[in-house]
Amino acid sequence: MLEEYIKSLEKQDKSPKTIISYRNDILIFMDDLHIKPNEFVTSTDVKKWINGMLHPDDGKPLALAITTINRRLNALRSFYSWAQKNQKLQHNPMEEIQDIKSADEDQEKIMWLTEEEFEDLLNRVRKTPVKSRGVDPEEKYRRDRGIIYLLTYAGLRVDELSNLKLTDLDMELKRIRILGKGRKLRTMPMSNTLWQELYDWLLFRAEMAKKKEHVAESPFVFYSQRSPKFTVRGIQTMIESYSLPQKKLTPHMFRHTFCKWMLKANNNDIEKVRRLAGHSNISTTARYLKDSYSDLADAVEAMPKF
Predict the structure, then answer these.
(1) Distance (Å, rounded) from C-alpha 269 to C-alpha 274?
(2) 3-state DSSP: the chain helix, strand, coil percent, rounded to 5?
(3) Residue 221 CB neighbours (<10 A)
(4) Do 77 and 191 share a domain, yes or no?
(5) 169-170 and 175-179 strand pairing
């Protein structure tokens, strides 16, 4: 049964790396419980298995990272959901099983991206093949990259980005005019990094306007394959398409990233970040003051050495 499931993943064009990871995680589960893929499993069995990974017995390896446990649970969800749907098993033991929550590092990973994760994302955007017919790979890459940079380096909300017009960009003075919540207008300075990314996109966009009528007629900075405006839902779907199995990406995650990075770059000047992000209440900005796990690790390492 497991081999049938693996073949179904291959038909879905899952990456070889993902398939190997799913297979290994499922086999670990089967081996730990001393069962075969087609044998009956209950949610209680799964919960005991999770507890064993969190609190291993003496003589066993140390407790696994929460991200590793959640990755294994995700593999089991996929497997048992497939088995039930294809009538291989009548019961899905994963229906009641939730991911493990952490008050520290894993909560942070849900909210924002580390610098390493952001760099990895840019590499995925560059290398991800285009699956839809008629889509220009270079056009999609340049557009998606420009959107990711704007979300991250300007902290725009997804609707603010969707509605952003060419006339809202002042490339000479390096600033962006943003119409935010409650129709409040704010002006965002462009960093040199963001300016260069937008400049490159606008040059490419001008070339595409010569080839596509809906681009030439569009007043918006970003357009879709057939529409002069890239909708909120379209942006969300695009961002989600670059997610990893263990971490779903959302447009708002980049706004969180902007706030977190800005606080770090400005020595926790919360008022500056509040104004740049367009937060009405400073308490909204204050939640980003919480130190990340890596910040805490750096602090511990910085202690005097003797």
Answers:
(1) 9
(2) 60, 5, 35
(3) 25
(4) no
(5) antiparallel
Give the CATH number for residue 123: 1.10.443.10
92: containing domain:
2-100
- Structural domain tally of the chain? 2
Within-domain flag for 130: yes
Instruction: Give the list of residues 6+ apart from residue 279 with CB closer than 8 angstroms, or none.
Output: 285
* Site of tokens 């075969």: 36
Asked if residue 303 is part of any domain, the answer here is no
SS3 of 83-136: the string is HHHCCCCCCCCCCCCCCCCCCCHHHHHHHCCCHHHHHHHHHHHHHCCCCCCCCC
**Residues of the chain under the 70 pLDDT cut:** 57-63, 102-111, 265-270, 273, 275, 277-306
Three-state SS at 170: strand
Q: What is the pLDDT of residues 141-158, one digit of tens each?
A: 999 999 999 999 998 989
Q: Please name which of 65, 93, 72 lies closest in space to residue 23, comparing C-alpha atoms.
A: 72
Q: How many residues does the chain have?
A: 306
Beta strands in 153-252 (DSSP E): 169-170, 175-179, 185-189
pLDDT, tens digit (0-9, with 9 covering 90-100), for 248-257: 888 888 888 8
**Cβ contact 76:25 at 8 Å:** yes
Strand arrangement of the beta sheet that strand 169-170 belongs to: 169-170, 175-179, 185-189
| DSSP label at residue 191 | P
